[in-house]
């Protein structure tokens, strides 16, 4: 679609009127100011974008480092558990022979000989319990989750560790293995009572989002080792401790997609918190 003879695309050709584009000085000045503003805005947007990207990259790196650290810790504990389980199996047979012989001697003798044989039987039974705990840490039984009312479950456990104050504003339901949770609560309460022999323990149950939480609180001397280090096998500050209670507790909790954490209690003492997947609506 061209123009007629002698016309250009914007109007008549030579000799005729032409389209002229012109700007006043004020308009020209205004347009010259727009470009620097656009450049500044563009630079600001680019800088903001780079900051966001840097933040996301740092966050991703931190998360990756956390996952690697957790995996390294898991592998270390797996190696410890495997070595312990192998040792436990090798101990069981000779231990059974020692215990059996001592039982025969205790039943066939009297006086000091019988007393010595009885002490051997008692020592063998302590080693058996230790071996069983070691195997429980190495290979915790597979969780069989069911819907549990943690308030009702705790109510049946706490009287053995009295005095205990149980705080539960409403039923707190979790999806968890009943035997695992019972074992965990018994161990946490026994641990708290060992460090706080006379005081009143506090057991606090509640919902936190998608989690059911049980906290066992004492007024003992508090944490004397790093909170995470306390879950390492054979780490204990108790004269009669084996260093396997807390590792087993965490192993059982994690088998059911939960966890156990320690922290200092405000005002003195320690808080052991069990986290489990909640059941039902909050």
Features:
single chain, 282 residues, alpha+beta, Heat Shock Protein 90, five-stranded mixed β-sheet, two-stranded antiparallel sheet, disordered N terminus
In CATH, what is the class of the largest domain? Alpha Beta
Note poorly predicted spans: 1-11
CATH architecture assignment of the largest domain: 2-Layer Sandwich
Rg (CA only): 36 Å
Task: Write the CATH homologous superfamily of the largest domain.
Answer: Histidine kinase-like ATPase, C-terminal domain
Taking all residues together, what is the mean pLDDT?
79
What's the β-strand tally? 9
Indicate the proportion of strand residues.
15-25%
**What coarse outline follows from CA principal-axis ratios?**
globular
- Give the total of domains: 2
The secondary-structure class comes to alpha+beta
Helix content: 40-55%
What is the CATH T-level topology of the largest domain?
A: Heat Shock Protein 90
Number of contiguous helices: 5
C-alpha end-to-end distance: 73 Å
The largest β sheet comes out as:
5 strands, mixed
Write down the secondary-structure element order.
EEHHEHEEHEEHEE
Strand order of the largest sheet: 4-6-7-9-8
Would you give an account of this structure?
The chain has 5 helices and 9 strands, in the order ββααβαββαββαββ. By secondary structure, it is α+β, with helices and mostly antiparallel strands. It has 2 domains: about 65-140, Helix Hairpins, CATH 1.10.287; about 145-275, 2-Layer Sandwich (Heat Shock Protein 90). Strand 6 and strand 7 form a beta hairpin. The radius of gyration is 36 Å and the shape is globular. The termini are far apart.
